[in-house]
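Need tokens for this chain, all 606 residues.
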Amino acid sequence: MSNAQLQNLLQQGGQAFSQGNLATAEQCCRAILAQVASEPNALHLLGLIRRRQGRFAEAEQQLRKALGIQPANAQMLNNLGNLLRDMNRPQEAVGAYEKAAGVQAGFAEPFFNMGLAYQSMDQHQEAIAALEKARAIMPSDPRFANAMGISFKETDQLEKAVEAYAQALKVKPDYYRALHNMGVALRMQDRQAEALDYYMRAMEIEPRIAELRYNLANALYELGRYDEADEQYRTAIALKPDFLDAHETLNQMYWEHGKRDLFAKSYQIGIKNAPKSPELREAYIKSLELAGNQEAAEAVVDEALSDLGGDAGLFRRKARILAAKGDVDASVDYFAKAVNANPEHQPIRMDFSRLLIQKGDYESALGHLEAAEALNPFDQEMWCYRGLCWRFLGDKREAWLNDYDAFVRPQRIDTPDGYGSLDEFLEELGQTVTDMHVTQVRPLEQTLRGGTQTHGRLFFRPVPIVQTLRQQLEICIARYIDALPDDADHPLLGRKSRTFRFAGSWSVRLTKDGFHVNHVHPAGWISSAFYVQVPDSVRDTDEAHEGWIKFGESGLSLGEGREEIKKIIKPEPGLLALFPSYVWHGTVPFTDDGVRMTTPFDVVPT
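Here are the structure tokens for all 606 residues:
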């Protein structure tokens, strides 16, 4: 084969590949390799074909063959990195990108892809540094600034995220991704009207993107335009019938606004259009469970198992329903089926260990919790269950883990500058936050009973008094962290960091007979209760402990002899209680007509 023929075949193969005609592209590669078995460009192209086909192991083999012949080929190294990222090997991908950037100066693409690999590992500072290098080489490419915005958003640097998206849009005003992402960042800052403008501009370009419709609906909801939000949620589901977030949020809206006749109907429609999705069936079952409709939930799970066979998530749901009915032995059997179907499904391990603790089989529970820790060592629910097992087995590690006196600490915030007293500040704060409670009932999945909860992340709202509160709380959190001892093996102390961020923040407004069921915060590190308003019954009773926060009593209803309150704190306006997110906590109901308002939050280390 002459060089001209080889080049012609390579060109034909490349064109066919770019047009999606993989069969023709492969024929060209085969024709070349039949004559020149070590032709690196043909091996490279064949590797790209295999990647497009999802045949990753073969793709890696071909790309490494090509690199064995041309080890300093930056394009091949970059494409190897892309493949390794597809194969969920991001650290190896970073190595390939670094080699690609090292052998070809001025090549921006490896730095961009390196940033995406770092993002997949939640290493956002490294991602930003790599993306900065890409943008310095090619400032006219809007993808780089847009990707930087994503890392800024993920690290709660929302102003920088907005600035990065603006830079991308300055280069390309109709860049859909940046328009959409700008809307998300603005909404996170509670700038809903501005977010809406960007979403509408994005929708003019891509009207059939379900995620865009969903985020547009979220902004409309926060603006109080509920009918329009309803329409957009339903449109998102029409575009993507198994869009779980859209189903969940739409039905949460129906629940909180008293539209019980519409609750869970979207799942029925979605299942008709996506009948093979076990995740959608499971989400439907979960919604029925949360609403207390166990009979309907069991009927749906039985139908799903009949239609779809042995899915781990469906086995889990069946096991939960049986446990709720008191059929423990049958529940254990279904949990065992779920574990066998997917041993690395962490929520199954957690639910199974919960049942085993209730059953009194603590050693077996610890076995599942050990497996759960290997899957997610920072899961706070895993640690709270482990603490229960240790307590019932007389293991001294329970005291090491929980140490209520050392780790559960109340303190008062200082009076902020500009206020004559803390009471003056709290009165204004209470009035401001009360206006943010716009729903009729509690969120379906939350622990409060007899009250409401705000939407979104409270501490990111651009409301001056809320930001003042945040600053005061940050002082208290830093003080709490500084006082913690060091212990690298401890789930609280081993994550000790002077820098932290708010993983969640909200307000809860409880009314007469309101309370929190005992719970933990699975995705936190340090959790809290800050008291803005307290009813008279909370202030005046020291024996009934109405409205007090209690620690140590589990949410598993283990009964007399196994449940124990280890510590209890009397709420006061201006008091902040900080504690490990894995510590069981709940509240005692109060009986007067007052309001108990808190602004809880979760903190995680950075």
